[in-house]
Amino acid sequence: MNQATAIVALMKRDLRAFLRSRSQLYSSVLFPLMLLAILGTGVSDGLDPKHIRDYVTFLTPGMIAMTAVFSSTFSSASYYQDRDSGVLKVLLASPHSPRVILLGKTLSAVVIGAVQALLVLAVAAAIPAIHFRWQYGVAWSLLAAVFAIVVLNLFLSGLGQLLASKIRTMQGFHLVMNLVLFPFLFFSGAFFPLTDLPVWLKVLGRLNPLSYGVDMMHLALYANGDGGYFGLPMDLAVLTALAVAVFYFGTSRSVSPDR
């Protein structure tokens, strides 16, 4: 068995396990949609924000990013399940390097996260209350949104695998993931624009990798022009570079069977 076949086999194994866990599938897709309906309607009708046009549409890229965050957390937890059940020890005893094993498992997390986020995007596009502007044209805007979704999942899956390779317990992993990812999510422009924030929060927003994925989806789906946004070239450059770097380091971790 060559390395490519081994990677595909490991990816298929995790995908089958995910599809058998229907509760994870339903909750990861339904929760962002439920939050979109409740928070979007509540803020739009209750608070009447002055600086955001059509808040429920503005919120949609944030819910897609949230789907990627949750999916990366759940999918990376399969590392601990395999380790505690002894499956990881068997996999690492194969002729393939630890990097090949981790790559196969992490690619499954990318596929799962991207499919779930695309489901949220598809459902949101069919909701009459959500009005996507598609400022680059439907085809190019959709391509930009899909690219942002896939690369964002690449980054988050690599980050999840990197943390999983360093943290000994699943409880500690979930705690650290929440500690890292929820501030990322809240300071990404997903729930409110970064333009009106204090300077120190704007700086945090620019240092936040998720900001560039959310920004790219806002430009593709919500915005009418580039004013107040990082811009598509910046989003493409930063998001791609960070995703490739983190994914590479996440899948390059040498893993001991006894960890």
Can you characterise this structure?
The chain has 259 residues and is mainly α. The protein has one domain. Helices cover 75% and strands 0% of the residues. The chain contains 11 helices and no strands. α2 (22-47) packs antiparallel against α3 (55-76), α6 packs antiparallel against α7 and α7 (138-164) runs antiparallel to α10 (209-221). The model is unreliable at 254-259 (pLDDT under 50).
H/E topology pattern: HHHHHHHHHHH
Classify the beta-strand content into a percent band.
Answer: under 5%
The number of distinct β-strands equals 0
Morphology call: globular
User: Total domains, how many?
Assistant: 1
The count of helical stretches stands at: 11
Cα(first) to Cα(last) distance is 26 Å
Q: How much helix, percentage-wise, in residues?
A: over 70%
Helix/strand-derived category reads mainly alpha
User: Taking all residues together, what is the mean pLDDT?
Assistant: 78
Let me know the largest β-sheet. none
- List unreliable stretches of 5+ residues: 254-259
> Cα-atom Rg, whole angstroms?
19 Å
